[in-house]
């Protein structure tokens, strides 16, 4: 990866060359995080889908490896997942890494491949396919369910808008147990890329099951997005806690899709990564040798709100703290009004940085946090204290005219109250905004023709107290 290439992110994973979409088959083994991805090795638009492969020991510095699966007689290699077969249930060998993915040829069928060298190379199974259906089904996602002593696989029945749940003793023979989704959540687009996991509820001993369901189109601001359902899973059936018409979004930006978690992650972590783009314009974004990056890795949890409903918390994986360089720009606390206060953003490394700030909006109606450069390009983040929303306006953010769907204002429900805590991660073509406690996250691409150099904070009226404004210039290993 070259820093001189326009817009090439510096602290987000990208393919060295060529097209990337969904993260795939992510697993952790022997201290290494493996990230495979939908990959076109021959060009920077969707096609020739293979599984590209990168590895990392810290989730933020990535090493490009050789692709592990390339199209074969059964078709292109669409999305899927990997597990580490610790008990050798499949008979390929103890600790074999087993991948199940969609072979996309004349129809979509599910195939198996396995690796006996820690995921460096994979061999396709001789009896593929292992699951067939007359419907369009894809993106198998697996995990070991200890209570029932079975492997569980969730498959997206894309046009049915259902997630089909299978079980298996050996990863080769699968039995369909149930189906979830008819009439639930957002039903506008196709359902893709599921993930089912059990998460602890913050501050309690309780655990709940979360079913991630990526949809396209139908996202809250158009195109691709990730919704989720919270409920229970008994080894066969997922039951949702909320009424069918409730829709919960994982991320309130336009560039967060195909989100799935690492299998076999240490310390019971549920760490996810998203494809940081949107099918509306992914093939047209103004990058050159490659297209698309992943989001930062994020750790998921749950919290319970007053009415007894559960929502996801999403926080940047703690490994991202290691990106902070030695120097910090500590702007402390101050008060702002309508005229606003401007602070410098770092110039080193194309301005890549993390920004932390606390707000006490006091008498302000809205608080604007504006990132801008001398060319007049700007992205405006707004806390609206009247309707408790957080917004990001990228309509004047830089290059926007490559797609009519790109200029947008995205909105998230902000936590109640006048006090807010925000963490921003700014890379060369993305902004990820996290509520300090993980209660919302918003991921948007932006293509400023020069890095943003100024951060200014102002109110629409009244005053706002800003606390602990700290800018951390980020540093990455040279890759
Ligand atoms: C989601 C998706 C998956 C499919 C893959 C193909 O973005 O459409 O459903 O497996 O991309 O590249």
Automatic annotation (TrEMBL):
Domain Glycosyl hydrolase family 32 C-terminal, chain residue ranges per copy: 342-472
Coiled-coil segments: none
Domain of life per record: Bacteria
Occurrences of domain Glycosyl hydrolase family 32 N-terminal (ranges): 12-304
GO biological process, one term: sucrose catabolic process
Keywords of this entry: Glycosidase, Hydrolase, Signal
GO MF annotation, one: sucrose alpha-glucosidase activity
Family per record: Belongs to the glycosyl hydrolase 32 family.
Protein name, entry field: DUF4980 domain-containing protein
Lineage: Bacteria, Pseudomonadati, Bacteroidota, Bacteroidia, Bacteroidales
